[in-house]
Amino acid sequence: RLRLAERLRGAMAKSHLSIRKVASLMGTSKSQVERIISDPEANIGLDTLIKFASVVGRRVEISLR
Questions:
Q1: Which of 3, 32, 51, 58 has its C-alpha lying 20 to 30 A from 25's C-alpha?
Q2: All residues at 6 or more sequence positions from 1 whose CB lies less than 8 Å from its CB, including other chains
Q3: What is the SS3 assignment for 63?
């Protein structure tokens, strides 16, 4: 989970989008985006993760091992 939060922060930084802009594009609150990128214990829904990834120009791939 920590690695996911780090990767989401990195993707947001590379896309040059602020927390406020990501929140606006996702249709959610700034505090929700802050929780997603800073709380490794946050329980992020798959729909939210996909929406976040889309906003920052990424895609989600799921692999079961």
A1: 3
A2: 40, 41, 42
A3: coil
CB 17 within 8 A of CB 55: yes
34-49: per-residue pLDDT in tens?
A: 998 988 788 889 999 9
Give the rounded distance of the alpha carbon of 32 from its chain centre: 10
Neighbours of 65 (CB within 10 A): 2
Among all chains, which residue has been given the structure tokens 């120009």?
57
Q: What is the DSSP letter of 56?
A: T
Report yes or no: 26 and 54 within 8 Å, Cβ to Cβ: no
